[in-house]
Design goal:
Hect, E3 ligase catalytic domain fold; 13% strand; 3-stranded antiparallel beta sheet; 4-stranded parallel beta sheet; alpha/beta
Length: 505
């Protein structure tokens, strides 16, 4: 008979301790005894038998289908499969081509009793696998309950060899950068991408030395382990770690709030269509549903509308209002705002305080970047010395390491330049702020979409309501007040006036 031999190990340690060679030797001796001519060996290295999706296993099946093979020899059924259902499916597949299965260590054949024995043995293989999985899960849960982290150390930590309780510790190089990422994110003043760019410029890399992807960085920011908390995923229970948390609990909670939208961020609200700047910001007075923006086609042209699109069961007063009508009434509403005099004097101090904070942040970032550049230049000198004087670095290794250092240096120097460019012209900024306070309608008309949305949110933090004809009374920023308050009995929009107080009739 012609046959093939399939051997498998699930870990690299088994590859190194000659388990594959042991299996091959036993299978070869079995084939000699049984008169089977081995057409080919298939060796699976580091693959689990929990799934049939294994490269060598699939190649073996394809070979059996195409070549004239009568038997597949394995060391034991656990090498073939650890799932009873998968075993039966693959066995049926091989039987279609007249291929039988033999095990060196387990007695079964093609007879009825042999098939029964094979089924029992395949069930025991799955049972053994299930028991191991249960023990592993129980061991992981017990480790977590005791405050130990039973997995490879996450970015920012490193494993402590030979330490049982406190088995991970902060990585001196990466831990400060992870901590800085949480600190920046917790302020709510930066986007996730901006924070990633900044900590990347400071030297944060994956364990393989690559840049973190936005997805990986987002996942990192959500891991409780950085606050010293271990979560047991199967049960959802949380345990205090026996190791040091990298991040202050307040920074971690604030970061989660920013990521989930529970905490207001200073970033502008993003909307997709620049044609409808009031979309979602204005809501229906009757049902509180945010208005949408859309176009409808008339006989000769299209018309833009803001609409309440709630279901009739929710809002019987559903309405459409022409885009230009709603936006003109919004401008009229802005004309009724006047700055509160006490806030005018305070505003300069607020802006100056913001400027000082930005300057402090920029100086701190530049200092960190300069230290990183110095570290990289020192490493560059050490690398050159190791290559030229000590002669213990191969040329290709030296070129690769030097290329990586030069790339990191260029990124750090560029980041220093960007940080230096963050200086604020505070007088221009104050002049702009005063103009903003005194001429809100004109500015709103000239802004782009993002600026309009942010400006709207500053003026009306809670948004606006509209009933199809007029705006409801709105809560404004403390900087502003109305020239005269709107009421439900007045016209939808008050008459235009200047900034002077409206005198009684």
């Amino acid at each position: 008979m012609r046959g093939v031999v399939y051997v498998r190990v699930s870990t690299q340690r088994q590859v190194e301790n000659l388990s594959l060679a042991t299996q091959k030797d036993a299978c070869a001796k079995y084939c000699v005894r049984e008169g089977i001519k081995i057409a080919r060996y298939f060796e699976e290295r580091g693959e689990s038998a929990k799934t049939p999706d294994r490269p060598e296993f699939n190649e073996m099946l394809a070979y059996c289908r195409e070549a004239k093979v009568e038997v597949v020899v394995v060391y034991s059924l656990t090498r073939f499969s650890r799932q009873t259902h998968d075993h039966q499916v693959v066995r049926a597949y091989l039987s279609k081509f007249g291929v039988s299965l033999r095990s060196v260590t387990e007695p079964f054949d093609g007879s009825s009793s042999g098939k029964l024995m094979e089924n029992i043995l395949s069930s025991f293989a799955q049972f053994d696998n299930d028991v191991r999985a249960e023990r592993t899960a129980a061991g992981l849960s017990a480790a977590k309950e005791s405050g130990r982290w039973p997995h490879p150390a996450p970015l920012g930590y490193r494993n402590q060899v030979g330490v049982i309780e406190k088995n991970i510790e902060p990585d001196p190089e990466k831990a400060p950068l992870v901590k800085e990422a949480f600190r920046l994110m917790a302020t709510g003043r930066f986007t996730q991408r901006q924070v990633l760019d900044q900590v990347h410029s400071l030297g944060l890399r994956t364990k393989a030395g690559n840049r973190l992807s936005p997805q990986s960085f987002g996942a990192l920011l959500r891991k409780p382990i950085y606050a010293g908390i271990i979560v047991d995923a199967p049960t959802g229970r949380r345990f205090e770690g026996a190791f040091e948390g990298l991040v202050d609990p307040a920074d971690f909670e604030n970061t989660q709030a920013v990521l989930s939208g529970r905490r207001p961020s200073v970033r502008p609200y993003q909307r997709n269509n620049p044609e409808f700047p009031l979309r979602v910001f204005v809501r229906c007075t009757h049902c509180s549903t945010p208005l949408t923006g859309s176009r409808s086609t008339g006989r000769s042209k299209q018309y833009a509308y803001y609409s309440c699109r709630a279901k009739k069961a929710v809002c019987r007063a559903r309405f459409n209002v022409r885009k230009e009508v709603l936006e003109e009434r919004f401008v009229e509403l802005l004309e009724q705002l006047v700055p509160e005099r006490p806030y005018m004097n305070l505003f300069r101090e607020i802006v100056l305080d913001t400027w000082r904070t930005r300057q402090t942040d920029a100086r701190g970032l530049r200092r960190k970047l300069q230290r990183r550049i110095q570290d990289l230049e020192t490493r560059e000198e050490e690398l050159v010395s190791a290559h030229l004087h000590k002669g213990n670095l191969p040329e290709d290794t030296y070129s690769r390491m030097m290329g990586k250092l030069h790339q990191e240096l260029a990124e750090a120097r560029l980041a220093v330049h960007d940080a230096s460019g963050a200086e604020l012209d505070v007088e221009t900024m104050l002049g702009f702020a005063e103009t903003l306070l005194l001429d809100a309608p004109k500015l709103w008309k000239t802004f782009d979409l993002g600026q309009k949305q942010r400006f709207q949110k500053i003026l009306f933090p809670e948004g606006l309501s509209f009933d199809g004809g007029s705006f409801g009374t709105a809560a404004t920023s403390p900087v502003f007040s109305y020239l005269r308050h709107l009421s439900a009995n007045e016209e939808g929009v008050v008459a235009r006036t200047g900034f002077e107080p409206v005198l009684p009739a």
